[in-house]
Design brief:
This protein is mostly helical and 241 residues long. Helices cover 75% and strands 0% of the residues. The chain has 8 helices and no strands.
Length: 241
């Protein structure tokens, strides 16, 4: 039985820090789409072109989303960076309590890396929503439901891909700021743009795009699916409510 216990323990290791993202994903997606609609309605009172309104509403939704999700990200990164034995791994709530007791709620504590997270989500949503709705309004609607589905999926796929390419430097900066520092006890990565400059200077410009391929593989099709679910669900509610 012992070898099986060892395998089980190692497998559980792959799921270290999974609770914070699970807790964050539900409100995160709800905030993303709900606030996008609210900002879009609010911008209707201003003399903005529809193209600009979609992008600005996306930016607003991303900034709001970042404020909600950042504490969960700090806890998740803290748990994943913990290299103690699996038996000593604290729970997500215990880790959050540790962070608050040590550094409070501010930019050194539970909201560490918030500016980078604001950039990551703000830029992503601005491009994601702005590109999708503007391009969707340009490409003619297809009367065939299957082809119409593919049209929307294709535009969503490209939206998620372009947004990922543009926002990944903020993602890299966020990971460096919130993650373990190279020298224990010394804070090397403090602010968003200074971190980007440091990474670019020491590791080269392409270091700002580390992890781009897996990110595109996740958020390209994932972004398309989210937009389709949102569009069809929103249409259903408008029709039946």
């Amino acid at each position: 039985m012992h070898p099986l216990d060892v395998v089980k323990t190692r497998l559980f290791g792959f799921y270290k820090g999974i609770l914070p993202p699970i807790l964050a994903e539900t409100p995160k997606r709800a905030v993303k789409f709900f606030t996008f609609e609210q900002y879009k309605k609010l911008l209707g009172y201003f003399a903005l072109s529809p193209a600009l309104a979609f992008a600005v509403a996306g930016l607003g939704s991303g900034l709001t989303e970042a404020v909600v999700v950042n504490p969960f990200e700090v806890v998740k990164v803290g748990l994943q960076a913990n290299r103690d034995a699996f038996a000593e791994q604290p729970s997500a709530f215990a880790k959050a309590r540790q962070i608050i007791q040590a550094n409070g709620f501010g930019l050194q504590g539970l909201n560490k890396g918030l500016p980078a997270t604001l950039g990551r989500h703000g830029v992503f949503n601005m491009v994601y929503f702005g590109f999708y709705f503007n391009v969707k309004n340009i490409i003619p609607v297809n009367k065939d439901p299957a082809l119409e589905f593919l049209r929307k999926f294709g535009i969503g796929l490209v939206s998620g891909t372009i947004a990922s390419i543009i926002n990944i430097p903020f993602d890299v900066a966020k990971s460096r700021i919130q993650g373990p520092q190279p020298v224990p006890g010394e804070i090397k990565y403090r602010t968003c743009f200074k971190t980007m400059a440091t990474v670019c200077k020491e590791e080269g410009f392409l270091a700002l795009y580390k992890g781009l391929v897996p990110k595109i593989m996740r958020l390209g099709p994932g972004g398309a699916v989210m937009l389709l679910v949102y569009e069809y669900a929103y249409g259903w509610f408008q029709e039946h409510w």
